[in-house]
Structure formats: structure tokens, C-alpha cells
Amino acid sequence: MRFAAILPHVGLYGGVRRFLELGNRWVRRGHEFAVYHPDGAPPAWMTFRGETRSLSELGAEEHDVAFCGDPGVLGRLPECPARLRVLCVLGPRYAPKYRALHRPDFLVVGFFQDWRSNLDLPGETASGGVNLELFRPVPAPRDPARFRALVFGRADKEVKGVRYAVAAARRLRRRGVGLTLFDSSPIRLPWWWTLGLPVETVVGLPQEELPRLYASADCLVSPELSAGWSNAVAEAMACGTPVVCTPNGTADLAEDGRTALVVPPRDPAALAAAILRLREEPALGRRLAAAALERVRGFSWDAVCDRLEALFAPRLAAGLAAAREVPR
User: What is the CATH number of the domain that holds 265?
Assistant: First the structure.
């Protein structure tokens, strides 16, 4: 089959990663996959085995399936000649724009379990995924004198909830808990957030080094206020790191007390209590991590491809049958 994805760019963002990872799997299976974005350049941060093309080339070639999930370029989806056009639901905060740009001929596919709670459109679910070839348990040293909580540190996006993780860590600064913030781009925190708090920042780490970062942490904290599929949670679980998280972006993976400790959003006290519990109950952390590792294995990118192919096959076959019945 011939697949296409329309993206706003190919920088290091979770929504972009999704289509590059899916493309790599489909190319490996013998299909074609083209990414259309404004300048057409290949991604610099990961190997992509498909083709990248400029958005100016969007209408030049026909595809079997065309994807788009970013509201900024979703209006270009009808321009892509394709037998099946897929509106990909990437996050609940985009729901108003998805409703405005939806068309009856689009197949709506949500990439997280509870997408329908925010978007009243008919559609299907194909939750996931995570690169289990890259993200896996690896040996990594931990400092026995300090319990280290790892947080995706994009503080300039309020929706990431970083301030609540910092506030939780401030409550624990005398309990031997340190905070490590990581991101692909510079981390900008208000200076007063971390007064008296041991904070480490890790910026621009190559993808192949991320598993060691996850494995070296005592827990990952995901304080998201609104999210679809949390890459950080899935990656940490795949690396065997215990997780403290809100329900946002984690409904497919995080079961409180079984695969993670789940707390309400915007609640530093609850975050602090969960982090402290993992610090004082190491056996609990090991049990959660083992169960989470087993859970996340069902969400590999290959598994997502299988789910999507199962959704597409009958629709594409029905389209071919209808085309044959059209009088010539």
C-alpha cells in the first residue's frame, strides 16, 4: 500500500514521532510511506526510512491512505489524493478544531483510549505506541543517597503541568528527593520555582541515550493537565522505571496501584505523597515497574500498524467494490 502523512514539520515532537515510527514499520513491511511537510527536508533527530516531500507536492501523487492529526495542517488533508483519508485524534485540547475541520468522508481514529470523552464524532481507536526496540530496560547507575524523579521539562507549555511537579519536589526537598527535568530544547523555568531545590536539567540528549536516562531515574513523574498518548510514560514503562502520573495521556497504560501511581492533576500534595511512597517502598516500585513493562509491550508500533491495517482493509475493499459497480 501507499501511505501519506501531512505534518506541520518533522521536529522532535510526540505527534511527529508517531508518523515517522509508523512509516518506518510500514516501509519495513514492504509498503511506501511519504511525509509531506512545509520544506520537505528529512528529520535530523531520527532515521526515517520513508520519503519526505514538500507540501507543494501534495496533490501530485495518489495514495491508498492519507493521515493528518495536526489542526494547523488538517485543512490540507482533502488536497491529498487518497482512497481513504484519516483524521488522527492526537489530543483532547484539539477537539474544537477537529470538529470544525472534520468532513463526512474522513475516517476518525483516536490514538488513545478515552478520546471520545472530548470529541463527539464516530470513529475507531488504535492506541499506542512506543518503540520497544529502542526503549527497553538497560543497566544504569542510581544514586542510593538521593531519590531522583524524572520529569519532561517543557515548562513553557502550561498543559505539561511542570510547575506542579516542581511544587511537589519542593515539598520533598528535605526527604532526599531530587528533580531531573529533560527536554529536547532549552528548559526555561521562573527563577523562584527551584529556590533551595536540587534540580538537574538534561537537554538535547540523543534518542539512543534516552533509555539510560529513564533507567537511571527512580521514577518518572508525568503531571500532564491534558494529553492524548503520553510518550514519556510509555517510554519510561518500557525501560522498567516506576511511574507517578495524572490520568491525562495514560488511560491505556496507568492502572493505579497496579502499573503506576495515579494522582489528580494540579495536586502537588498528591504528587509528593506518591513520590514519597515509592521512595519508602522500593518493593512497590519494582512491582509497578514489572506490571507496567508487561502492559506496555502490547503497544509496540508494530501492534499499532496491525490495528490500523485491520481498520483500513475492509474500508479500502468496500471502496474498490463500489468503484467497480459505477456504470461506465
Answer: 3.40.50.2000
